From TrEMBL:
Single GO BP term: glycolytic process
Keyword annotations: ATP-binding, Cytoplasm, Glycolysis, Kinase, Nucleotide-binding, Transferase
Catalytic activity: (2R)-3-phosphoglycerate + ATP = (2R)-3-phospho-glyceroyl phosphate + ADP
SUPFAM superfamilies per UniProt: Phosphoglycerate kinase
Keyword ATP-binding recorded: yes
GO MF annotations in UniProt: ADP binding; ATP binding; phosphoglycerate kinase activity
Name of the protein in question: Phosphoglycerate kinase
Protein residues bound to substrate: 51-53, 90-93, 149, 182
Entry annotated with the keyword Kinase: yes
């Protein structure tokens, strides 16, 4: 059994200036995750949540399968032990509607190649035919369910939906660390209906991030970029309590730049978050945290591989262009901060790294982090892809499959996907010791 020490850390202040430590709200007993290793799997229907939310192109082809490979140890273990594996994941944000672009069919074929074994693909994730397919599995066989987010109930953590998913398996294994910050049916609600275990990836992520939390040295720095601005802007408020420096690039920077009165042309921006961004800048000043924005940018008329990039000062972004990368002056400035940092947490590319014209900022920053002697954690599907593509894994302390999940974990926020398994484990232990009624039911 693995004790999630991030929760234990809540109990004792460990850090000096802007500590990661928080007050304990939870029992130590609740910290425990039960491991997949503990299970007798032969003949068991193992319902496993994985995070196969891989980067894809416009046609839905997989750009990078790192997240799938990361789940292979758990998948291969279940199959080797004679378990009957039912895999479930989301892909993208189809908003509760069926959209072929977000089908998991391509992932089933890729998984088949990775396992060198057949992978059955279900046409949905619930319903009588899916239940029949799950019941029909033989020992060592694997079925991949269709995108969970084709049903709006998934993101609502709807109990009836959780129950229907749970009815497909005998045991629930959560190996989706990257989605553990979402309280959804397949990550949280499902724990009410099945015995819960952590997969190997979930265990590894929690262990590695706990190590980083143990004694994070100052100067501590966060680098924030990417496109999920609405999701992650709020997290900067928490980071201000824990970091000495926050570098902001990528799509994230635009909202801050506009909030500070700069013209950002056609760049992506969350106009409804301008007030919040201004508040964060003021709070950073009060807390004496250096919140650093780009000095210049690479701009282009459209987001495409062919669009020509042009370097402009951040005060002179033309109205008809969009910011697609940080410029050379910003790269130099960011590198200076990276050289001085002792702890670095990074999520989100600093530009549209998928296209060479706008990849330089992200690549240079990746190299600088890999060269630095700081303890470094890089999180997020896209951000991790860059490190792998550049072959710089060795220089990074931990490359996490989760972006938002990693940030929230390091900020001391309890992740619903981890918490659901912990609470269930703690209650389950009591039940197994005869201290209560069985806590899960099979339908
Ligand atoms: N200036 C920008 N404008 C538009 N998109 C951007 C910009 N900078 C980065 N991005 C995009 O952000 C995406 C990754 O964002 P996100 O999902 O938040 O990161 P991660 O998957 O690492 O958590 C990439 O597809 C990248 O092209
Ligand atoms: O890719 C993910 O998160 P990330 O981009 O923060 O790493 C997860 O699969 C969660 O996806 P979501 O942010 O659509 O809930």
């Amino acid at each position: 059994m693995l004790c999630q020490r991030s929760l234990c850390i809540f109990m004792q202040p460990l850090c000096n200036k802007r500590g990661f430590a928080m007050e304990s709200k939870f029992d130590l007993e609740v910290c425990c995750l039960r491991s997949l290793k503990e299970l007798e799997l032969k003949g068991q229907r193992v319902l496993m949540r994985v995070d196969f939310n891989v980067p894809t192109d416009k046609e839905g082809n997989i750009i990078d399968d790192t997240k799938m490979r990361a789940a292979l140890p758990s998948i291969e273990h279940v199959l080797a032990q004679g378990g009957r594996l039912i895999l479930m994941s989301h892909l993208g944000r189809p908003n509760g509607k069926i959209d072929e672009k977000y089908s998991l069919k391509n992932l089933a074929s890729r998984l088949g190649q990775l396992l060198a074994a057949p992978v059955y693909m279900a046409h949905d994730c619930i319903g009588p035919e899916v239940a029949q397919a799950a019941r029909g599995l033989q020992d060592g066989e694997v079925l991949l369910l269709e995108n969970l987010r084709f049903h709006a109930e998934e993101e609502k953590n709807d109990p009836a939906f959780s129950r229907e998913l749970a009815s497909l398996g005998d045991i629930f294994v959560n190996d989706a660390f990257g989605t553990a910050h979402r309280a959804h049916s397949s990550t949280a609600g499902i724990a009410d209906y099945l015995p819960c275990y952590a997969g190997f990836l979930m265990e590894k992520e929690v262990e590695m991030l706990e190590k980083v939390l143990e004694n994070p040295q100052s100067p501590r720095m966060a680098i924030m970029g990417g496109a999920k601005v609405a999701d992650k802007l709020g997290l900067i408020g928490n980071l201000l309590q824990k970091m000495d420096v926050i570098l902001i690039g990528g799509g994230m920077a635009n909202t801050f730049l506009k909030a500070l009165g700069k013209t950002i042309g056609k760049s992506i921006c969350e106009d409804n978050l301008l007030e919040q961004a201004r508040g964060l800048v003021e709070e950073a000043e009060k807390k004496n945290v250096s919140l650093i924005l780009p000095l210049d940018a690479v701009v282009a008329p459209e987001l495409s591989a062919e669009a020509p990039g042009q370097i402009v000062d951040i005060d002179h972004v033309p109205a008809e262009l969009m910011i697609l990368d940080i410029g050379p002056q910003s790269i130099e400035l960011f590198k200076k901060y990276i050289e001085k940092a002792s702890t670095i947490v990074w999520n989100g590319p600093l530009g549209v790294y998928e296209y060479p014209n706008f990849a330089r900022g992200t690549e240079e920053i990746t190299r600088a982090i890999a060269r630095s002697s700081a303890v470094s954690v890089i999180g997020g599907g896209d951000t991790a892809v860059i490190v792998h593509d550049m072959g710089l894994e060795e220089g990074i302390t931990h490359i996490s499959t989760g972006g938002g999940a990693t940030l929230e974990f390091l900020e001391g926020i309890r992740l619903p996907g981890v918490a659901a398994c912990q609470e269930k484990a703690a209650r389950g232990i009591g039940a197994e010791l005869g201290q209560g009624a069985p806590l899960w039911e099979k339908s």
